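note to self: the first set is below, dont mix up w the second
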Amino acid sequence: MQETFISTTVEETYEFGKKLASIASPGEIYLLTGDLGTGKTVFTKGFAAGLGVREYITSPTFNIIKEYHSGRLPLYHFDLYRLSDEDELYVIGADEYWNSDGVCVIEWADMFPDIVWENAVSIEIKKDLSNGPDCRIITVSGGKEC
C-alpha cells in the first residue's frame, strides 16, 4: 500500500496518526522520517491516542525509548536521533521490542538504513510551506489500507 495524505493543520496530522493506530496490529513497526519540526511526535501523539494510551506522550530524544502500556496494545516509542551507530540499538535491547506483541513507532529510522525492519510501515512527513506553515505531505508505504 502507498497512500499520500495532505495535512494542513497540526490537528490533522494528529488525527491521521490516530486513524492509522485504529488498524495497527501486534508486532507492527512504524518508521517515521522527516526533518526536524515536521510533526513526527505530533503524529505519534495521535497514534498513541488511537491505541487508547492515557499517558502524556513526549519525544523520547533523551531516553531513546519510552514505553506505554495503557492502550489496547503496548506502544514502544523510539527516537534514534542521538544514536551514533546501530550497535547501540542492540545494546539497549531494541530488537526485543521489535519482535514483541506491541507496536513500535520509530522516529529517525532513516539514520540506520542497513537495518532490515520486519512488518514495517514507512511514514515520511515533509513540510509543504507553499501551502501554509503547518501543511505537511505524509506518505505511507507498506501496511494495510486505512
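second set (the one i keep forgetting abt)
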Amino acid sequence: MEIERKFTIKTLPDHLDNYPVRIIEQGYLCTEPVLRIRRDNDDYYFTLKGRGMMERLEENMPISAETYAHLLTKIDGALIQKKRYMIPLDAPSFKEGYTPSEDLALVIELDIFTSPKPLIMAEVEFPDSECANAFIAPDWFDEDVTMDRRYHNSNMV
C-alpha cells in the first residue's frame, strides 16, 4: 500500500546538489488499471497501481533492461522523464494532537519533470493515513494536489 501526499512547489530548496538524485523515466501501458514501466537509474520495474488518491495499492516487480526496452515500444502517450531529489525531512511538523513515532523518517521526493512538460512537484510517503492527514507541509511547498487527478503521473501523459 502506498500512502502519499503531493504538492506543487513555491521555491526550490537551497543546495539541491547536496541530496541524492535519481534519474527516472516511466511510461504507461494502461491507465485503467494503471500498468507502468519505470527505469530508476539502473533498475527497471513493472508496476501495478490500484485506484485511489492518497492511499492506493502499489505492486512493483523488478524486470530486466531488455524487458523494459521491449515494453517501452508499447506505451500509451508520452514518456515521463524526471530527476528525483531525495530530501530527508529532519523535523516534520504535524497538527496538534498527533504524536509521530520516534523512529519516523520522512523523505521529500522532489520531482523535476522535463517531459512531457516542465513541472516541479514534491511527494511525501507516510506509514499510515493518520500520519499523512496530520502532516503540515514545509513553507516552500505550495498547493496540496493529492486529490487532484491531473497531478497523477498516469494522467500527465
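remember for set 2: The CA atoms of residues 114 and 122 lie 15 Å apart.
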